[in-house]
Amino acid sequence: MTRRTLTAAERGDRRFAVLAASPAVLTIGALFLYPLGYAVLLSLYRLNDKMPGATAFIGLENYVQLATDANFHQALGRTFVFCLVTVFGGVALAVGIAALLQNPFRGRNLARVLLLVPWAVPPVVNGIMWKLIFDGSYGAVNAVLEGLGLLDAPIQWLADPQLTMGVLMLSEVWKLTPFLALMTIASMQAIPSNIYRAASIDGAGGWDRFWKVTLPNLRGTLMFLLIVQSMWSIKVFDTIYVLTGGSGGPAEATTTINFLAYLTTFSYLDRGYGAALSITIMAIVIAVTGFWILVLGRRKEKAS
């Protein structure tokens, strides 16, 4: 294959394009590569601001310590459970909402607009809102349940480890599901209507059309949704901070791996070990992303 010789004007356009894009590429590279390189370097040091005299280069010792750290293992387990509920629950709920909003009914456009409201709420405001709703003294949930006669005494939702994790899951699903649903709606609208008409002529009911037509055509969208929701769930921070007052409690019940990295770095001032935690979290996010691409991308290739 012979390469076409560029004209002088085309070479000039190419040079201008490279020159115009260079500032943005250099800025993004500096903002991404410098912190990443600095974090990798820190992770190779014993660096605790409480013991400045003990600072030393220790190589991969922080990563070896992670492998046997019980706190990290427990945080990893909590993160896994949290991701299991928020990723699969959030995506399933988003697909269900999108399927409902695809059907014509009066007020459908208004419903789609209102769907944006939770997504537009800032994460900190979202955390404050759910903290007020589930407050044990004056929260709306206790007031409603007591009003209905279902409770004799108020429940301390944010003082019980299991209930607090439940509130955290609910708040994250409430906030992130609208974005997932809107993406699903946009993808559903791109499915040709003649496929549904052909399926109806063949006698397919509503469930069959959804299972055999809609879902297969959403495979690429589902892969994207699972990837972004997994990333958000692994990196959840704002809501935990607000709900628990920055403690990750009660009894470390909401201390996920990302929050453990924050506590290690900024509360315990162990910057070297905190950096190792952060690099490990990044590796986990990359591994999970690769997993979803491998699973759903491979199936797409087989289907084609």
UniProtKB/TrEMBL annotation:
Supply the Gene3D superfamilies for this chain: MetI-like
One matching Pfam family: BPD_transp_1
**Which PROSITE patterns did the record assign?**
ABC_TM1 (PS50928)
Major place of localization?
Answer: membrane
List localization entries.
Cell membrane
Transmembrane ranges?
A: 16-41, 79-101, 113-133, 176-196, 217-234, 273-296
- Mode of membrane association: Multi-pass membrane protein
Q: Where is the ABC transmembrane type-1 domain?
A: 76-294
**Per UniProt, which keywords does this protein have?**
Cell membrane, Membrane, Sugar transport, Transmembrane, Transmembrane helix, Transport
UniProt family annotation: Belongs to the binding-protein-dependent transport system permease family.
| PANTHER family, per the entry | BLL4140 PROTEIN, DIACETYLCHITOBIOSE UPTAKE SYSTEM PERMEASE PROTEIN DASB
Name assigned to this protein: ABC-type sugar transport system permease subunit
